[in-house]
Amino acid sequence: MNQITNRNEQAEGIINLSSRAKKRILIFSHELEPVYYDQPGFISNCKDLVLRHPQCHIKILIQQNENLKKMDHRFIDLMHRLASRIELKLCHEDYRTHPETFMLVDDQGIFLKHTPGRTPATIDLENRRLNDEYQRFFNTVWDQSDYDTSLRQLSI
User: Which structural domains are found in the chain, ordered by start?
Assistant: First the structure.
């Protein structure tokens, strides 16, 4: 488990972790932070993943969408082009103040921040127990959340 404080190194860690995905990526984020998720390497890794096999997919839960609706975010463009493989939901209101953000890769990789902003992050390439714990949380929130139609309706 690596603790990383520098945001650029955290972004590099996300790119590295996403490059290891074989089946799925799950993201729980405040607003799909561009410093992490609007990076060319990350976008390329996601595109490669979902085009690799029909069973590969990416699911994203965001806690708020106001800033995301206003910005030109390359990941949202990718989501529009590959809508059947990349799904995005706005978190159910009960989870919109959850402090943690994370990205899960397959059944073992995890990027985790316990609090938002310029705080340390943990990256672990092989932690099935922690990944499973956060997958259960993600699936619970996913099942209670709705698709964000406002982002689906933005022009491509």
Answer: 2-108+121-152 (3.30.870.10)
